[in-house]
Amino acid sequence: MDIIHLLPDSVANQIAAGEVIQRPASCLKELVENSLDAGATNIQVIVRDAGRTSLQVIDNGSGMSETDARMAFERHATSKIASAQDLFALRTMGFRGEALASICAVAQVEVLTRRETDEVGTRLCISGSHVESQEPCQCPVGTNIKVKNLFFNVPVRRKFLKTDQTELRNLLNEFYHIVLVYPHVQFTFVSNDEIILELPIGTEKQRIEAVFGKGNKPYTAQFVDIKTDTEIISIRGFVGKPETANKNPQQYFFVNGRYMRHPYFHKAVLTAYAGMLPGELNPSYFIYFDINPELIDVNIHPTKTEIKFQDEQTIFQILLATVKESLGKFNLTPSLDFNREGEIEMPLPSQRTDNSASFTTPHVVFDPNYNPFSRTNKTSSKGWEQLYAETREPQLPVNEEEPALFDMALTDITPYQYKSYLIVPCRLGLLLVNQHRAHTCVLYNQYIAQIDLGKGASQQLLFPEVIDFTPDEMVLLQTISEDLRVVGFELDQFSQNSYSISGTPATLNAQDIPNTIHNILHLIRETGANAKDEWRKKIALSLAKDTAIPNGKSLTKEEAQKLLEQLFELPSYRRTPDGQTVVSVITDDEIKRKFDI
Ligand code: ADP
Ligand code: MG
């Protein structure tokens, strides 16, 4: 008996859907791109429960005939290309004819559509690739597609969806990618009956302002224009002035009206900023490329945002020169703040070579066989060497039996402050403590204790401060607001895009509030902390870093002593929770060696 047979369409479509539709955000992308391809000038996206319950896209585009409406949901059904040749001159977003077939394979879909020339429209209901009904109906010109219960028939996929907050952020990010490049189209984004974004028709700059601007001062004032036209490519857009670089930059490339990721071109932009940015800060940019579609290949994968260019090296050079020229033309001398905290790094062991510098940096000897948990080691003085052993585990516990670090009480030692380091004699030699990192450890432990207790000291603000946030920041804030309360923030949603802060942790200066909250959001987003205890740790760490004594601040003797006391009481003080070295020792032996003793 022959055993090979063709898969029924419904099964084939479900398999294909696995590639194209991974989460509500991919659904949004496909539907909105279809609306744009249909020439819509007004597009509304309406989601419920981050698209899990429903995701609806309403457009005023061309609409479809009765037959086309039915055909559109077949696999490889498209009106956009007819031959393989067309693939090399694409001007539309879609072309595979896979999206609608994939969506209807894994959801319950309802479509209302009408062309301008038709008296009546068509209503079509499809569930899991199965057409349940098709009938004439009254509806406005355009197309209205509602996707309900995504993955209702693929429970594994449904289970893989993240929390509503995360999926909503994914939806918004996907939405940004599209709206930023279609400023001449009006968009609305509604989530659970609340209008999250309303974007009128305007210029590219006005669109950027409408998405990321926060009201008080124009967001786009932070940018300079770039523009160049060459034979192979036109580049235009906006790049952030160096002094507006930050930890959470908005970085977007678009090519021929399509968002793309391009690490190589990203490098070109960063190279143009060489020497203008402090270490960990990055510029924002919105850069739009226009190129003959025959010179790029978008046909890599439906969900991939990478795009291949024929002549990447030349474009790299053009982009680099353009950005550099604009930054130069506007005579932008960077105002760097060299006192920024956390910048003073102790040399890493790998960088320590005794002859490489004009002075000799300490050479750290450690015993690789030392086991901090073994009792026998504890009694020997070798046990000390764990203090400067490079450990991968920043939270290495200190055994209680460890001999005291100091010969006398810390209150009897006067720490010497050299730049950002407190220096105290200890049993092993000279102990160097970075003050900012030390205080970060102390505060981190305090904040964690408050979180565990469920209560933190709060100070009331005389005048509540209203802070604006972008829609995705608002979503994240809602997720973590309870934990912010626990560390002492008193906050209430004030409007659709702002929170009012009426109390803060007692340790925080009023003028630092917006920055501190943004830093918390950034750290959580950057590290992808998804579970409650993960983001709680990030809140504690971010807050600790922001409220710790800055490097270089001069301390009184009492302050220095208190800091050291608090530090050495901690169960783990060698490294900050994110792994930075807090204490280091120059041993007696090393000092002797310097004097040839
Ligand atoms: P593709 O976009 O790759 O052609 P899709 O499965 O996304 O494939 O859509 C199939 C076809 O359905 C499109 O080629 C288009 O003709 C039609 N279509 C889809 N969405 C719309 C819409 N919003 N308005 C008008 N026509 C649409
Ligand atoms: Mg499409």
How is the biggest beta sheet arranged?
8 strands, mixed
Count the E strands.
22
Structural class of the helix and strand makeup? alpha+beta
Strands side by side in the biggest sheet: 5-4-3-6-2-1-7-8
Q: Helix coverage percent of residues?
A: 25-40%
Tertiary shape = elongated
- Residue stretches low in confidence (pLDDT < 50, at least 5 long) are 332-402
User: Count of DSSP helices?
Assistant: 16
Strand content: 15-25%
Fold and architecture overview:
This protein is α+β, with helices and mostly antiparallel strands and 597 residues long. It contains 16 helices and 22 strands. The strands form 5 sheets. An 8-stranded mixed β-sheet has the order 5-4-3-6-2-1-7-8. A 5-stranded mixed β-sheet has the order 9-10-13-11-12, covered by helices on one side. Mean pLDDT is 82; it is low at 332-402. Magnesium ion is lined by residues 30, 33-34, 94, 99. Magnesium ion binds at residues 30, 33-34, 94, 99.
Write the layout of secondary structure elements.
Layout: H1 9-20, H2 24-37, E1 42-48, E2 54-59, H3 66-71, H4 99-105, E3 108-114, E4 121-127, E5 130-137, E6 142-148, H5 155-160, H6 164-179, E7 186-191, E8 194-199, H7 204-212, E9 223-229, E10 234-240, E11 251-255, E12 258-260, H8 263-272, E13 285-290, E14 296-297, E15 308-309, H9 312-329, H10 375-379, E16 416-418, E17 421-426, E18 429-434, H11 435-453, E19 458-468, H12 471-486, E20 490-495, E21 498-505, H13 513-527, H14 532-547, H15 557-569, E22 583-587, H16 588-594
Parallel strand pairs: 1-7, 11-13
Antiparallel strand pairs: 1-2, 2-6, 3-4, 3-6, 4-5, 7-8, 9-10, 10-13, 11-12, 14-15, 16-17, 17-18, 18-22, 19-21, 20-21
Helix pairs in contact: 1-4, 2-6, 6-12, 8-9, 11-14, 11-15, 13-14
This protein binds adenosine-5'-diphosphate and magnesium ion.
